[in-house]
């Protein structure tokens, strides 16, 4: 057990994104690995969504989701665990906004606000991205991002961003095993 693990669990919201090596499988696998995270418990998961890439546009569309967990890990321990899951799923970090097998972003950790080089909470760009806001609102309708506003209001400002909910039928066809 990590020495800084707390006795009281804190809610945390994590965004998942993938556009390489069977993205539906990668997201499903990412959720499975998050559900197995030490000192944590998966509470809710959103539907899956297809979105256009941001920034670097000449790449495949992304599959996105958001999960809520309760964790006794500190924010920095949780971030480290997320980076380890990304590596386990084949993530290789190159340039910003590059294609990736699995991207895990810590969006919110309880009501903590943090501005460190290695960790900024709330996530600094979440309020600008429909592919984060829509699934987040699905699992926590009354969510408010500190110093930004309600997720519902922020989502309305992203109305020009393309987002498609993926059917449960398509999701259920994806096996959960390694390649």
Stated plainly, the CATH topology is called Alpha-Beta Plaits
Assembly state of the chains shown? single chain
How many distinct beta strands? 10
* The CATH H-level homologous superfamily: 7,8-Dihydro-6-hydroxymethylpterin-pyrophosphokinase HPPK
The helix/strand class is: alpha+beta
Quote the beta fraction.
25-35%
What is the approximate shape? Answer: globular
pLDDT below 50 for ≥5 consecutive residues: which ranges? Answer: none
Helical content, roughly? 25-40%
**Count of discrete domains:** 1
* SSE order: EHEEEHEEEHEEHEH
Distance between the termini: 31 Å
EC number: 2.7.6.3
Family: Belongs to the HPPK family.
Keywords: ATP-binding, Folate biosynthesis, Kinase, Nucleotide-binding, Transferase
Domain 7,8-dihydro-6-hydroxymethylpterin-pyrophosphokinase: 13-140
